[in-house]
Amino acid sequence: MSRRDFLSMPAPENYVAGLGRGATGFTTRSDLGPAREGPSEEQMKEMLAKRAASLGQAAPSAYGVTERKEEERDEEEDRFQDPDNEVGLFSSGMNYDKEDDEADRIYQEVDEKMDKRRRARREAREQQEREDYEKNNPKIQLQFADLKRALGGVSEEEWAALPEVGDMTGKAKRAREARMANARSYAVPDSVLAAAAKSGELDTSIASGDADGMTTNLASIGAAQLSALTVRLDSAANAPGAQTTTTCGTATTVDPKGYITALERKQSIGGEVPVEDINRARVLLESAVRTNVHNGPGYVALARLEEVAGKIHTAKKVISRGCELCPRSVVVWEEAIRLNRDNQHNAKIIAAAGIKQNTKAVKLWQAAIELEQTPASRKKVTRQALDHNPQSVELWKTLINDTEELDAVRLLFAKATQTVPLSEELWISYARVSEPEDAQQILNKARKAIPTSWAIWIHACRLQEELGKGDMLETIMNRAVKSLIKENAMIKREEWLAQAEICEEQGDKGTAAAIVKATVGWGLDEDDERRDVWLEDAKNALNRSRSETARAILDHCTSQFPYSTTVWHASADLEKHHGTTESLLRVFEGAVNACPNSESLWLLYAREMWHSGDPKGARDVLGRSFEALPGNEMLYTRAVDFEVDAGNYDQARSFLQIARESAATDRIFMKSAVLERQLENYETAIDICNQGLQNWPGSWKLHAIKGQIYEQLSKLKEAHEAFNIGTRAAPKSPVLYILLARLQVKQGAIVKARSTLDRGRQQNPKSEEVLLEQVRLERRQNNMNTAQQLMAGALQQCPNSGLLWAEKIMHLEGRTQRKPRALEAIKKVEKDALLFVVVARIFWSERRLDKAATWFVKAVTLDSDFGDAWVWYYKFLEQHGTEEKKGDVLSKAAMAEPKHGEIWQSVAKDPKNARKNVEEILTIAAQKAE
Fold first, then answer.
1. For residue 451, what are the contacts with CB-CB under 8 A and spacing of at least 6?
2. How many domains does the chain have?
3. DSSP per-residue letters across 284-324
4. Per the UniProt record, which residue ranges are transmembrane (predicted)?
5. Of the candidates 750, 784, 814, which is a domain's last residue?
6. I need a labelling partner for 891 at 20 to 30 A (CA). Which of 120, 213, 840, 885 fits?
7. For the segment 83-96, what is each residue's pLDDT rounded down to a tens digit?
């Protein structure tokens, strides 16, 4: 029976291997290429149609779905058709009308506006970040970009003269190993080994005699500890931005970069370069010159090395050889001229030879000019140089500086500007030496020659200011801005402000103001935070002592934001510290007219008017403020203060009476009671307090004033009742508990005082005043252990309280422990004027007066409103200061007008001192301070 070779037989028609199990082709790892493609779509359809015909079924579509009839498919598609759009939902827009077009345009404008809002600042920020990143992480190709560009000037001869690379790898290491191999070694003595073995042992025995043993100097150890603590205190008071390194508990500021640089600089003790370094460098430079005879900088370096070594003759020979072999190297000729300056004749010969080889080298011409002794010879050489280099601005400047006649100078400037018309410096200098009328024409020519120059416009503006034409300054700057924008040469806003500050520094204040007004808004959109940007610009200008520039910025800011009280306050503050009284009052007048509803502006205006010596004007200002802000209690209280200072008590009473009727507040009643108390009308003051407490029973100040009046009248029972009622009506007021406890101590009821303070502590657990009063009560009763325990608990409740730390340091610590505790407190609280005063008092007690004065200054600088700092500083100066320094402190304290501080408030709020000024209160408080 014959066997058919079916493997070699052709496949049936439309046969696809593996189609029955879903395979249409596969690829194995051993295949060198992809498997053959499967059957096409037409083949699949034909095969499925034949199969369906053999089974007597309708021809299915792909994946076994029977094809629908054309009518059924059209009917199903029509079912989902949009009745309003016969061509489909995403058609080309047959129903697109004008409203759709307008909507698209509006959306596009909104998108463009949103993208523009922060584009400039975003691009600037991204550019800055990109520059910072490239600066911190430069690419290798950028690091060597300048060297690559310099290679473009290398000639073929220089390329051919480059030496071959030698085998320098490991040369120094091999030489060092050879030296070590030849070095001798010695055996270590046994005594050294024995000493090394005993180095880690502890010897607990004490030598009986002092001759051979070591004695402990306790005084030196204490002095060292004090020095370390002083350094740590100074470091703790420094700004937190300093980089510090802590070593053995002592914080010191270290500059790592400078430290490493200092280590790398190896010089001898006498400041001279070591001989071995000179020899080593000479070998290297001679090798470099020998391998490349046309290396000009190499000859210069070798000549300077010989000069440093003191071999001037050798240095001249080296540089002479360099001039012969490198005649086109300008640096070589310059060095040759410098080395031969001791012989003017030789130097001139060398300069002439160098210029002959390099006629375009301006530096060689300058060196030759410097060799001449007389102005005539200098001008002769300069003219020869200009014949070869007519475009050199430096040579023109040299020729002009050597010319003394003004007319000749002007002629030279005219020739120079014609020859070098693009030099701003020459045009501006030409205008400066010319008459005002001629200067204007010169600057107009310069502007046409260099339309992109902003410096010429600024100089034109300064020229008009010098001529007294201040009304032309803004016009010129506006024209300058338009012209520069047209030429696309407008510089940044920050650069304009810098130019304004330069003009102010040189005395042209009008020009500075014109520059600011014309350019301060350049690059800022209306949507940007222009007000904040301008306020920051003014602040930065003030920090650089450029008050006129800051004033111009704030004037422009007030014109753009006339209803911003923040801008008016900044402008008034500027005039108060850097302006005149008239300018300050003028600013306040504009401020209250623009912002009549601002209470603070009215109050400041009236106050400055009063301090300027115009009480009538201050009263008029307050009268206008009453019309703008009727019923405002702050205005009434300021009017009362003015009348009290002037001694018009009846007028002050009438103001308070009107206020109590029209603008009744607890503060008005408190102010009325205080006034009557100062005038010793105690019954009237108590009646006013009772009236106020009927409406405001929770006003702790009224309770306190009422109790203090009774206590002043020695009616301790009524005072106790007033304070007691106050603690129940206003339980969250620590002052009432303290006043009640002090009254109870005065009555001898110590246990009741403790109970009162405990009750106050329960109601105010975080009140440092109540906690401090508890500690002081026990301390005054000599219960130091109890006081220490209470202080420990108080510091747990309020660990950042400078008041508690000060009490602990000054009254609960021994003298030797005060400075460590002060350091600990400063680290906890960081910046607290009271703690600075404590440190100053510690140094004062140690008679370290310079340190004490420094810390007192730190305290009053940190918080000028803290009156106790001024009190202790003045007390210190009364003992160790001069009359001039005391007067300076009194004037600064009067300007600061402090309001806070325990000692300060006890004196300032005493009715006996009601009409005393700051200087008098400071003097009294200094006597009271203990």
1. 483, 487, 489
2. 3
3. HHHHHHHH-TT-HHHHHHHHHHHHHTT-HHHHHHHHHHHHH
4. none
5. 814
6. 840
7. 544 444 444 444 66
